[in-house]
Amino acid sequence: MIRVLLADDQSLVRAGFKALLDAQADIAVAGEAADGEEAVRRARELRPDVVLMDIRMPVLDGLAATRRITGDAGLRDVRVVVLTTFELDEYVFEAIRAGASGFLVKDTEPDELLRAVRAVVAGDALLSPGVTRRLIAEFAARSKEPATADVLARLTDREREVMALVGIGLSNEEIARRLVVSPLTAKTHVSRTMVKLGARDRAQLVVLAYESGLVRPGWLG
């Protein structure tokens, strides 16, 4: 059973998500929070698999709450999915850098929301849609944080190649076809790269790919 914590200051939004999620055989809403401070507290109490986190909330915003959750060693297995009203929310990239596994627009289709919850639990990041890749590229290009090219020294040539392909949004299956290897081999390379770099998931791997200069925004086309 996938346990979800809903963090949104609008009770009607929470009610809608709860009705959808609780209707699934493999998903259950473990709790709710109306502000970021409560979201952090409830995450520590409930240890959910996924937190659906609104960005704009009172007391503590979703960005700060995401940082606290992903920065808590005791919550390392908790995945945060940021909810936003607009696709190009200026805080989304910062949330992903802070450790969020991806983002969803609030008016996303129900099937997409369910797929997203299951995907992050499986270790995938919500980085497939082109709009997400463009958003990450845009904010990576404007990032004021120093480059971390030295992290690449820990990787083999093949792992760097795989990391670059993850960075432009390819799935394990697409990477396998590009490199003419099996999907399992591609997945193994991705997993080893994440372990070496201490990345929580593919989302952080993408951020590192941009920040290190391994991938450049213009490559997205």
From TrEMBL:
It holds the Pfam family Response_reg. Transmembrane segments: none annotated. Residues 3-121 form the Response regulatory domain. Residues 148-213 form the HTH luxR-type domain. It comes from the Bacteria. The modification 4-aspartylphosphate is found at residue 54. Keywords: DNA-binding, Phosphoprotein, Transcription, Transcription regulation. This is Response regulator transcription factor. It comes from Streptomyces tropicalis. The lineage of its organism: Bacteria, Bacillati, Actinomycetota, Actinomycetes, Kitasatosporales.
